[in-house]
Amino acid sequence: MAILKEPSCLGESKQTAIRRLNSLWRKLEANPNLQQLYRNFIHEYLDMGHMEQVFEVSEPTVAYYMPHHGVLRSDSKSTPLRTVFDTSCATTTRESLNSILANGGVIQESYLRYY
Which among 100, 41, 48, 89 has a CA at the least distance from the CA of 65? Predict the structure, then answer.
């Protein structure tokens, strides 16, 4: 995606992401079914190469820590857990990842004209 603003305009996001992660941990501890589904999601993303485990962390000069959470969809057999990545979560400068990326517009054809 095209970047509209310099990533350096993003403020601090780590503390918010940590707070949200701690909240997620509490929800997972209280719900073993959700915990197992979230584990499956993590392993699937690791297997597909969408993420990787990091053992040594050096703080980057510019970083956006992306909060995420799960939405249970009990009516869905194929995907009972949908993981939501909150790229609209504002940093200390009120900017978010979404706010500095160009909107690609609608990529699906409108079906309303066929009715």
Answer: 89
- Output the CA torsion 110→111→113→115 (10° steps): -160
Q: Percentage of residues in the chain with pLDDT exceeding 70? A: 90
**In the chain, which residues have pLDDT < 70?**
105-115
Which residues in the chain belong to E strands, given as ranges?
A: 68-72, 81-85
CA 68 vs. chain centroid, Å, equals 4
Tell me the pTM.
0.77
Sign of CA pseudo-dihedral 35, 14, 3, 55:
negative
Helices and strands (H and E) in the chain: how many: 3, 2
The domain segmentation of the chain, as residue ranges, is: 7-51+63-99
